[in-house]
Design goal:
This protein has helices at 41-48, 97-100, 141-145, 148-161, 178-189, 201-209, 223-230, 248-253, 276-281, 294-305, 322-330, and strands at 2-6, 15-19, 29-38, 64-72, 84-87, 90-91, 111-112, 124-128, 132-134, 169-172, 193-198, 214-217, 236-241, 255-263, 285-288, 313-318, 337-341. By secondary structure, it is an alpha/beta fold. The protein folds into two domains: 2-147 and 311-341, Alpha-Beta Complex (Quinone Oxidoreductase, Chain A, domain 1), CATH 3.90.180; 151-288, 3-Layer(aba) Sandwich (Rossmann fold). Helix 4 (148-161) packs across helix 5 (178-189).
Length: 342
């Protein structure tokens, strides 16, 4: 089969079209014919190497897959070839305390399709049956591919970790990203007042369409000053962070007493300064989060079917243009997700 693999660590040019053997599904696996795969920042970290992410090379990235069941393993009796599906990229044992409590990412055997296992920059991907969920009928394959990683991550951050309540103020940093554009929608669903930051007027206009209450162009305005003005000096209850070093300290400064910072990434750098006196005197919480439970993804898909959450698709490119897609992401040229189609 045709695939795009990271041949060595480096710039986008290390993504090469290669010919690989089709994966062979084991007894409890499903072989999915990939129709669309959405990019995620993780793909860039894997390509660059470092940050503790050193997959064995060549590596096929891609954690957000929508496709069609091509074949099933001998023990899979409830899924027929031709079914339109989404892949939940989080693999876990399914029988430990964490898994049974719905806290899959805490499973000691937790792995991610596209990171620890070959991903969806390919014509086929094989995953366990329990990682396959129905594709929302109202969505195209590229739209559906935008859902799993970013929506599940944002849902876990806001619902399970920060526990956002109706009427609270939430600041979503870099809201034009996949996880950011998911977060603002989930915040509105939870009844919060949302302030979103982005770097261009075009992205801010798109965020307004998603229901954001207040917009800040962080390239032109100091977001701490703006948050102070918008909240009449009260500041916000929750900050959604995934940019890291470039914004972290100022994000802390945006929190009201008792505020929660929830973060799932550090795209601009992972080393930050934190004044512990501010942390204890303002009774702040800093909450790390990653992905989420399989059950939560099914719940999210129900909200998508009802039209209450929608995937944010920037553009679709052929799989062969993976390097160009990475370049666009590194330039933050996209709003939502860039999707590749094999
Ligand atoms: Zn487990």
């Amino acid at each position: 089969m045709k695939a795009v693999a990271i041949q060595q660590h480096g710039g986008p040019e290390v993504l090469q079209v290669v010919e690989l053997p089709e994966p062979a599904p084991r007894a409890q696996d499903v072989l999915v014919r990939v129709k669309a795969v959405a990019l995620n920042h993780l793909d860039i970290w894997l390509r660059r190497g470092g940050s503790g992410l050193r997959p064995s090379l060549p590596h096929v990235p891609g954690s957000n897959v929508a496709g069609v069941v091509a074949s099933v393993g001998a023990e899979v009796k409830d899924l027929a070839p031709g079914t339109e599906v989404l892949v939940n990229p989080g693999l876990s044992c399914g029988h430990c305390e964490a898994c049974l409590a719905g806290d899959d990412p805490a499973c000691r055997g937790f792995q991610l399709v596209g990171e620890h296992l070959p991903g969806g920059y390919a014509e086929y991907v094989a995953v366990p049956r329990r990682n396959v969920v129905p594709k929302p009928a109202r969505l195209s394959f590229p739209e559906a591919a935008c859902l799993p990683l970013s929506f599940l991550t944002a849902w876990t951050m806001l619902v399970r970790r920060a526990q956002v309540k109706p009427g609270e103020w939430v600041l979503v940093q870099a809201a034009g990203s996949g996880v950011g554009s998911a977060a603002v929608q989930i915040c509105k669903l939870l009844g919060a007042t949302v302030i979103a930051t982005a770097s261009s007027a075009e992205k801010l206009a798109r965020l307004q369409e998603l229901g954001v209450d207040h917009l800040i162009n962080y390239a032109e305005q100091d977001f701490v000053t703006e948050v102070r003005r918008l909240t009449r000096r009260r500041m916000v209850d929750v900050v959604v962070e995934h940019t890291g070093a470039a914004t972290f300290e100022k994000s802390v400064a945006c929190l009201a007493g008792g505020g929660r910072m929830v973060l799932c990434g550090a795209t601009t750098g992972a080393e930050v300064k934190l004044d512990l006196r501010v942390l204890f005197s303002k009774r702040l919480s800093v909450l790390g989060s990653t992905l989420g439970s399989k059950g939560d993804l099914l719940h999210l898909l129900r909200l998508v079917e009802q039209g209450r959450l929608r995937p944010v698709l920037d553009r679709t490119l052929p799989l062969e243009e993976a390097a160009q897609a990475h370049q666009l992401m590194e330039q933050r040229a996209q709003f939502g997700h860039i999707v590749l189609t094999p």
